[in-house]
Every structure is written in C-alpha cells, then in structure tokens.
Amino acid sequence: MPAPSSEPREVRQRDAERTRAEILEVATAEFADKGYTGARVDEIAERTSTTKRMIYYYFSGKEQLYLAALENAYSVIRDLESRVDVDDLGPAEAIRRLAELTFDHHESHPDFLRLVSIENIHRAEHLSRSELLPRLAAPTVEVLGGILERGRRTGAFREDVDALDVHMVISSFCVFRTANRHTFQAIFQRDMLDPDRREHYRRMLGDLVLDFLTAR
C-alpha cells in the first residue's frame, strides 16, 4: 500500500509561511509609518489577506508582532553583511565594499531606519528582550573585524580603532542621509537622495572611512 502523500502538509506549511511573511511586511510599514503606539493591529489585518485573530495566532500580540518586524528588518542587513564577499579584496577595497553595501541597503530600506528611530524613542525596551539580539550584532563585528585585522597586518590601518568604531562611522553617514533627508532639504535646499549626487555621496562615504582608518 503506497505511503500517504505529504503534499497537503507541505502546502499548508508554505501557505503559513507566506501568510506570516505578508503580515510582517505590512506590519513593518505600519509601525514605520505610525510608530509602535500609533499602529493598529486591526489596520494591519485589514491590509492583509488574514484576520486579527490569525495575526495573534502567529505573533501572540502587538508587542510580539512589533518585535518580529524589528528582528526581521535587522536580519536583512545582517544577512547581507554575512554574505558579502571581501576575502579576495585588499583591506581598503573591502572596507569600501562594506560601506557601499550599507549605503545601498539604507537607501533602499527607509522603513528599517524609521523602525530603528522609533525603537530608540522607546530606549530599545523591546529589542533588548529579543532572543535574536546576540546574532544581530555578530555579522557586523566579524566581517569588519576581519578586514581591520588584515589592514593592521600590512600596516595600512591604525591600531586604535575597532570594528564598532568603523560600524558607527558608516552607520552615522548612511542613517543621517536617509533619515534626515526632509529636514536637511528644508533647511539647505539640497536633497541628499538626489540621484545625480548618489555616486558622489557613495564615494564620499568610502573616502571618509578610509581617511579615518589611515589617519596617524
């Protein structure tokens, strides 16, 4: 007698994964637009092909859904960092490649920056309870740390700088450029996301980081 097919279970699992991913996508946009307090689970349910009850089934509650959106947003950039191929590049070019990756990601994921800003308003009270928190930092430290060590061995990079110093410099530029776009434009009449200036700013970031690493 043939074994029963596992297809129905697999189909249900794929449907569940798609539903969960759809909820996360809409929730990310909702929280990024209205903040943790202003976002409504009813609105998220209305904008997805599911129900409020189903959202609570997958995420237990609003706080858990918000934390899942945060974790997912951080995981995207951390996954990119962990997979970036810099082993065959010289230290200077590797640093520039990683800086450009962050530049590109932050420009194309404005909701990520809004979520981070919102969580800082809440003093990271939700993110600090994340079970994924240790894994959210590891790729940045590991990749940057390896590049810095290679640069120090050749005498190209200064000794008194660590991976988090470099990460802070890169993030500061990329976050400011996107998160402060509107106020900067209102004050100075310059759009930092102007496509005509994109490559200028992208190159500027790499130059700034390398000047910092090679300063004596």
Task: Give a description of the structure.
The radius of gyration is 21 Å and the shape is globular. By secondary structure, it is mostly helical. The relative contact order is 0.10. Helix 1 packs across helix 4 (62-83) and helix 1 (7-38) packs across helix 6. 75% of the residues lie in helices and 0% in strands. The protein has 10 helices and no strands.
Helix content: over 70%
The main β sheet shows up as: none
Distance between the termini: 77 Å
Mean pLDDT: 93
Detail the poorly predicted runs. Answer: none
Number of DSSP strand runs: 0
Walk me through the topology.
Layout: H1 7-38, H2 41-46, H3 52-59, H4 62-83, H5 91-108, H6 110-121, H7 133-153, H8 163-179, H9 181-188, H10 198-214
Descriptors:
10 helices, mainly alpha, 0% strand, single chain
Brief write-up:
The protein contains ten helices and no strands. By secondary structure, the protein is mostly helical.
